[in-house]
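Reading a protein record of the kind used here takes little practice once its layout is understood. The fold follows as a row of integers, each naming the local backbone shape at the matching residue. With these conventions in mind, the following record can be read line by line:

_____
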Amino acid sequence: MESIIPVKGAVKYRITLDPTVWIFDDRRIDLNTYFLEKPEAEDEDLKYLLNTGRHWSREIMEGAVYPPTLKTERKFDRQGMKTGTFGMEIKHFLKNAEIEDDAKQVVFELMNGQEVAMSVEEANTVIFKYSQDGKPINDGGPVHLLFADGSNVDNPIKNIAAIRVDR
């Protein structure tokens, strides 16, 4: 089974996705709790201001600390990573690929030749589930596509081979 998923079509940058490394990504979502909690709308400006304020306060209290020290301070929940069920919003990857302005839809190409199409806006809300109980998804993997509202958690879209952006 191929674990690399290409993003192609009406994008500025053709990229490939490797779900096997997402377990270390800070943007990962804990799917055991995600659909139970009410998601909060993120205000990017507020988030930036809060992070800048924390950084400023830290420099005042502790003095400037330069990388790589900040990166080594991150703690991983090893037990949670070994037993958790995780996903990743694909909006991050679509943003990096820079979808062309005239793109109309995102098509998920399945390994059996079928296709699942949705608008660009809807595609920016879906989640790729890449881990079940701490293990990579092998049955129907490397990822399962979940809708943000959780309506297909019990019957996800499986066997995704590629993402194609169409005009």
Observations:
- The CA atoms of residues 106 and 119 lie 6 Å apart.
- The chain has a mean pLDDT of 85.
- The chain has one domain: 5-40+79-166.
